[in-house]
Amino acid sequence: MTKLRADLSIISDWIRPNSRVLDLGCGRGALLSHLKERHNITGYGLEIEVDKIADGIRAGVNVLHRDLDTGKLDFASNSFDFVIMAQTLQAIKQPDVLIDEMARIGKSGIITFPNFGYWENRLRLFFKGRMPLSNLLPYEWYNSPNIHLCTLRDFEKLCHEKHITITQRTVVDLSHQTRLLTKWFPNWFGQIALYQFTKA
Amino acid sequence: MPIPDDSVGLVESQTLHFDQPLTLACGKTIPKWDITYETYGELNADHSNAVLICHALSGDHHAAGYHNEDDKKPGWWENAIGPGKPIDTNQFFVVALNNIGHCKGSTGPASINPETGKMYGPDFPIVTVTDWVKTQRLFSDKLEIQTWAAIIGGSLGGMQVMQWAIDYPNDLKHAIIIAAAPKLSAQNIGFNEVSRQAILSDPDFHEGHYIEKGTVPKRGLMLARMLGHITYLSDDAMRKKFGRELRSGKINYGFDVEFQVESYLRYQGTSFVDRFDANTYLLMTKALDYFDPAQAFDGDLVKAFKQIKAQCFVVSFTSDWRFAPERSQEIVHALVEADKVVSYAEIEAHQGHDAFLLPLPDYMNLFYAYMSRVAKDIPA
Hints:
The complex is a heterodimer. By secondary structure, chain A is α/β, with parallel strands linked by helices. Chain A contains 8 helices and 7 strands, in the order H-E-H-E-H-E-E-H-E-H-H-E-H-H-E. In chain B, 33% of the residues lie in helices and 15% in strands. In chain B, helix 2 links the parallel strand 11 and strand 12. Chains A and B meet through helix 3 and strand 3 of A and helix 9, strand 14 and helix 10 of B.
């Protein structure tokens, strides 16, 4: 089995075998082909870039060409066991609409995103007065695809307002370890947030 | 001009005879029929590497290669079929056939009706996509191909692929449906009706008996083709190709050819007359109009697609307005609802419906990718 990006391997632990899975922004299909191999899942990945679609197809993944920025998705309610969106939320035009869609289509939704509340981001803004730059957020403010960054608190508040129940949360640092500090002060020390939620 | 290395090279057409009567969807029967076809590449020992190509309205069995060294043009899908091309003849045994009702070798309106000893002409029964798929299945038996590694087609060809996957779910592993639609729109049928009227109202048509009368309904067929051509290109493609360019550089205030686009359409129309049959054109447009695989399943496309076992790949082109990407998305949507294995790509292209025949880099990249998956499913 090929080595999986660390946040994806945590997601993989959350998926039940034989599930029907939808992966929003599936890239070259790494997660889905892994889930197929490990958990015998079925389902589809949505992707907008043609060369990534081609690679996904080569990897044996079912890829559907879709633009996630159109808001609504044409899938039936509760038609997937899991709807996953890994490290894509921050680049979406209407993330709130897409979260609603994930909760509608999936029995369970899984989202991962970079935590903007991470202490380094806060310090850079506080002391330097500049927008944060890091391994996770490597872009300048003017060319960043990340147009909707949020903190753990922001995300949880939005879910609360939408009556979406968070069923699982894992917060890790860049080495994808959960250290004591990230456990005690996740919104300060967590770099990547992984949430599982449902609208039951 | 020497034949390029990545061509299948010189090819010959063959014909298979079928003596069993064929009852068609319209209720009529033809007693005997022929299918003309070509093959490229080698069939493997267990006959598992065969790929069937379904042609569109004006296509035929000559999909790749050259009939002789002086041919100006190769087969219609030379861009996709050949050694090292997406439909790689080093890996696959590629079969392309001419559908019945057509005019390129298989039994059609210009064939002799054995019951009357006369040419069928306008009495050749209306054929449907379902009929074609049925004949293609019988044809596969003669070639001793039980399961196709893939069946591939664009436009009306893509419709045959869908019908195959529904009617004979066990007999194909992959269905590749390009620039197609689950059924025609009122606008599509409208265009077809205008082209039919162009032919039917031509005084040289003689109610379909033009060959006996020694005439050809040239004007009608030409008009039909000119109209068709406008629908195959996009507004953008026509603007890029012709703009409002004038042939003589100035306006002449008359009805002769003035704009380049007029000259192009007339050329397309007249050259079509030399290679196509008017009765066949009428039949092809009817086959398109009648195509609706959902009909046999209470009008429910999802229910129709529930039959499918093949893995599907659907492709559309952004500027295609004959069968726009939305039409392909209808197919994809129904396949997803039916919980089928499907991938979909929408290729950015300005060439309109005709794009499906062109070697566009994104399109070819995806085609290679998908065909590598088809190849993987062939038992070693």
